[in-house]
Amino acid sequence: MRLLKFDNDGSLSLTDDLQDVPSYAILSHTWGADSDEVNFDDIQHGSGMNKPSYAKIRFCGEQARKDKLEYFWVDTCCINKANHTEYSEAINSMFRWYRDAAHCYVYLSDVLVNSIDDDGVKRTWKVAFRKSRYFKRGWTLQELLAPTSVEFFSQEGDRLGSKNTLEQQIHEITGIPVVALRNAPLSQFTVDERMGWAAKRDTKKKEDKAYCLLGIFGVFMPLIYGEGENALVRLRETIDKSRNSTSRENGNIHWMVPRSSNALFTGREDILDSLEKTVRAAAQDCWRTDPCCIVISGLGGQGKSEISLQLAQRVRSLLWGVFWVDVSTPSLAENGYLDIAGLLQISASRWEDGRQGLANISKPWMLVLDNADDPHVDYQAYFPPGLCGVVVLTSRNADCQQYATADAVALEGLPIDEATELLLKAAGFTHDQRSGLEDDALGVAALLQSHALALIQAGAYVGRGHCTLGEYPEVYERQRKRLLGFRPTQAQSRYRDVYATFEASVGTLQASETQSSRDALELLPLLAVCGPNHIPLLLFESAWREAQRISGDQSDYHYDYHSDDQSDDVHDLEPSTWHVSRLPLLIQAYEDAWDSIRLVEAVNALKVFALVSTSVNNEHMLVSMHPLVHAWARDRQHEQQQHASWIAMGCVVAVSRSDGAMWRVHGRQLRPHLQAITSWEMRSAFQSEPNVDVACIWTKCGWLLQAMGDDKTLFILLNRLCSYLGLDESAIDTVWVNLFNLKAQNHLDCGRIKDAVQLLEKLVQTREHALTEDHPSRLVSQYILATAYRVDGQVQDAVKLLEEVVRISQTLAEDQPDRLASQHELARAYQADGQLNKALQLLEEVVRLRSQILAEDHPDRLSSQHALALAYQADEQVEKAVSLLEEVVRIQAQMLAEDHPDQLASQHGLARAYQANGQVEKAVQLLEEVVQIQAQMLAEDHSNRLTSEHLLCTMLWKTGQRSRALKMMRNVVEIRRRVLDHDHPKRTLSEEWLDYFEDESSKWGQVA
């Protein structure tokens, strides 16, 4: 692509054929006589300035300069038409060139701002605008539709308006839909519609009636001037071939569906056949103009979600993407769209960005909006506005059928034959065993109104041998009468039949005298406190193990600076014997040996009645609940029971917190459960319990959220907790120091460094007044403050404080964890202060000692090795740094998920080391992977994500990818300005790099 520019002497010149094209403006106009137009040869020879068309070229250049653009493009003189290859390439690229222009100027040579007609009447430009031949020429169609910024100018060069401000007039003149003028994907309009837009437009050559539409249809074909009307025939053939090829090649790329379909699924073939036909028709009609929305409504548990899963499996191969969003609560819905944004690598600061990003996809997709049950919510807000997708909405609310544009299914009970088949299948009866059971099965199916989930529950109940099919109605009726009075009144219409079925299963457990039944009844409400997703049973074992430590001799307990275990008394919000006493009985906290069988049997007792499901991952059992069962299990408890359940499950989490290895490995699975636990009301959690003991649970959950990098959830939690307790940073009681330590850490993690330092200085002052200089709790507060000083750039203060902490710690054994932790942090402060030799010497000693006492995959050992590698790199011992970091990354890859923060941090460090070692390609490749993973799991303003993106920008710049680096760094700076203080070191650093990028780009004329 060649571009024009005016040189300093006012002469017009052409660039070479550019590969890396700078920003440019583009002219849209109608041609006069060929002899009047300035052409390629004129520019090459410096002539043509006396031609009539030179005025519009000068206008374009001057307008571009006003818009701070150096380059511009005009079709008459930027293409060498004598070169047939170049001319053909230009015609096929024209739509893209107009689309990519920063500004498009439409020069209307037949429109004057004020004109006098033949009758001597003065007329405004609007009349001439409607009659302009610009709207009658073939080539100007793509020039109007392709660019985002289109501005109209009169013959005098006066601005008349833009495509946006004049869209209604343009729509009336051309018949082009307003949505197309607003740059909607043209693929959403039918072939005939787009052909219609050009039907009344003329071109000088017959063949151009086809060639001017290549970009409109997104196709390419060679130019054969002389073929006449056959060009339109070839265009049609090319369009059809492109559409067929797209259909074949799309396939399923993205599959974001939460679970596989139920093996017991039975029937519904007529509904599925109809829905499949609807989806297939929509997926194959890329040019439809109406949205395709399917609504499946019906009573909870009838199988709406299962039908959606079956449908997704049937049409999966047709669709580029299949996505699933649980809209039962606003938070789940918003997180679902953010997950979609992460999967599609769409930058999203709000959930609406994920929804819009999906709407912009021009390939066929399907989205299931599941559990749209709240009658007070307008679910239209969750519908992507695009036309290339199919939306399937499931709801218990029949009013949601109003959203349907393609198909609405009011799901009733199963047909009686399908209902009995499902019941018998769920009960485990083979075909040979079913003889003589038909009447009893029909009775149960009728009793349960052929309700799918109720039938599965009933089948599981019978299959376990608690009663026969013939006896089941009596058991059900007996339980129903008692339970209807027990059920919360607000839930009757929502869960009536299903709840009664669930309670029938619980009734059997209550009547049983087995230990597993009693344990199952204790476990059920605990699971209801968590989320419905997979939860590893290893959590309970960890709680038992740590309970042994708490119940035993606590004199050996040490103070780990890397956790929140920072006290020697209950007033530091540490789990105590009170928390051990509140653990579930099935954990057997006071027994000397862990009894996994008891817990597994309790799970199996629930699984028998299909109240839970299990799976195995890396030899560890996971348990989950259907969302409907999960809701029932919570709702069936009155307020005091819910409180007791929360306390018990909260103690499981709080006590297990010290098992760092378990939380590192399973943190990803446990995170949604931790979020569910911390979403409970404060009043329900505290009630009449001791504030300190309950606050300990919340604080432990908070430290876990901090370790997972869930800074926003933690910020909200801390505000709620401090508000409930009436705590104020201006007056800190020693009881709440650990809570305020957590709050200070959250300040640091969120970039509020000044707030963190201010709070930590108060905490240290509080500790100094109350404790001796060698008291572990006092040392801990000093340690954290020193870390904040280092992050804030107060390096000398950090060094001074840490040297004091290390001096006092000399009384401890040389391999004592707290002593090593303080030396580790002091070494980092030395390095930040430029005392590199001291840092290296201290870190090498810490690594040596930790290597002797810790396993190779212990996080403290790996953390010190990581820090030592960074020190080696700073000391220009780059090969040592690379070798050590490669080892750290290798070990972490064996034990941590790919998105674990520690793993990503080590990969980030290794990428920096590769860069320093001249292995730039490896550095960029590794950092690209880190940035991609972080974009999927972290908010766009998360500190770690921005740090990686900043580093990637600098690498891209140095490897010549300057346009991308500049664009990315602008985004980093924009976000950091939004979330960080004006003098935050990271914000300042990014701003300095951006200034450098901007200066260099301007210097070389490469402003992005």
TrEMBL record:
SUPFAM superfamilies: P-loop containing nucleoside triphosphate hydrolases, TPR-like. InterPro entries: HET, P-loop_NTPase, TPR-like_helical_dom_sf, TPR_rpt. It holds the Pfam family HET. Coiled coil: none annotated. Signal peptide: none annotated. Residues 24-110 form the Heterokaryon incompatibility domain. This is Heterokaryon incompatibility domain-containing protein.
